[in-house]
Amino acid sequence: MHPKTIGLIAHPGKPGVGELINSLAAEFSRHSMSVLMEKETAAVAGQRSGLTVAQIGAKADLVVVAGGDGTILSVADRMGDANTPIFGINVGSLGFLTCASSQSFREAVECVAQGKITFSNRTLLEVILRDSKEKHPPMIALNDAVFSRGEISRLIRLHTRVNGEALTEFNADGLIIATPTGSTAYSLSAGGPIMEPESGVFVITPICPHVLTNRSIIVSENSVIEVEASEPDYPVFLTVDGREPLRIAKDATVEIRKAKTKLRLAAMPDVSFFSVVRQKLKWSGSNV
Asked: Where in the chain is CATH 2.60.200.30?
């Protein structure tokens, strides 16, 4: 891939991000690539104008995101129907979705200009909240859909079905349905397995289960997962990729399935999923 138009989007609160964006823009221009900046990004870079994330997604050949994994999740959500590849430059500690550090931005630009970047197609979740009060639009997630108990210190009971067949009633502080990409996020912290990004599965992971037999289970990405609260008198909240939580009504069912589109995540040629896992989890092996 030899992109001609680059979209630049940054987390405006990261230290030194304005200087990084200006340096990136200069490097891309030096390689005869035009640059489009998002509004808030342009502001921290001292520029007067900018576009929305959706406009950049529609016009750019490649979207370069300077920030962390959370910034990439936010950009993926706001790009709408655009299927533009995302290339992450980490501003801070190493992330699982970002593939280059801010210090190596020149090398990253060089790889983009020479068409050396690689791509992985990341499965997305389509999350549909169904209740009798209103029609909710589908929500798309790169990482996960999380059911939680909110501020009340009480377990919740979540009746879960897979392809219409009862799985179990999870008795826990919450429940996570994650993609392979999301398996290294909240699900991992809750004791779930690490899954290779293109493994073609989802993982259902209970949060602090109150029943010893409630454990993570891996299902096919072609599965339809349905979750509903078994005790409607206690609040249950749904959070999709860390966005604003939604309270689930008493008669509501949440349906989760594979989205029709995938996210194309770009990476440096020498950066693999397993190399990132080794660095992030400090898997150095043993001398024994």
From this structure: 124-260
How many residues appear in the chain?
288
CA separation for the pair 52, 42 (Å, rounded): 11
Domain with CATH 3.40.50.10330 in the chain: 5-117+268-280
Q: What is the pLDDT of residues 65-103, one digit of tens each?
A: 999 889 999 999 898 888 899 999 998 765 788 888 888
CA–CA distance, 263 with 244 (Å, rounded to integer): 22
Handedness of CA 129, 130, 133, 139 (dihedral sign): positive
Catalytic residue (choose from 61, 69, 81, 251): 69
DSSP annotation string for 179-223:
-TGGGGTHHHHTTPPP--TTS-EEEEEEES-SSTT---EEEETT-
pTM: 0.89
Which CATH number describes the domain made up of 124-260?
A: 2.60.200.30
Cα–Cα distance between 220 and 213 in angstroms, integer? 21
Amino acid (1-letter code) at residue 171: N
| Both structure tokens of 44 | 């921290």
The DSSP secondary-structure symbol of 104 reads G
Residue 258 is given by DSSP the state: E
Q: What is the pLDDT of residues 106-157, one digit of tens each?
A: 999 999 999 999 999 999 999 999 987 777 889 999 999 999 987 777 889 9
Tokens representing residue 87 in the block: 């290339």
237 with 246: CB under 8 angstroms? yes
Note if 144 is an active site residue: no
For 51-103, give the secondary structure using H, E and C.
ECHHHHHHHCCEEEEEECHHHHHHHHHHCCCCCCCEEEEECCCCCCCCCEEHH
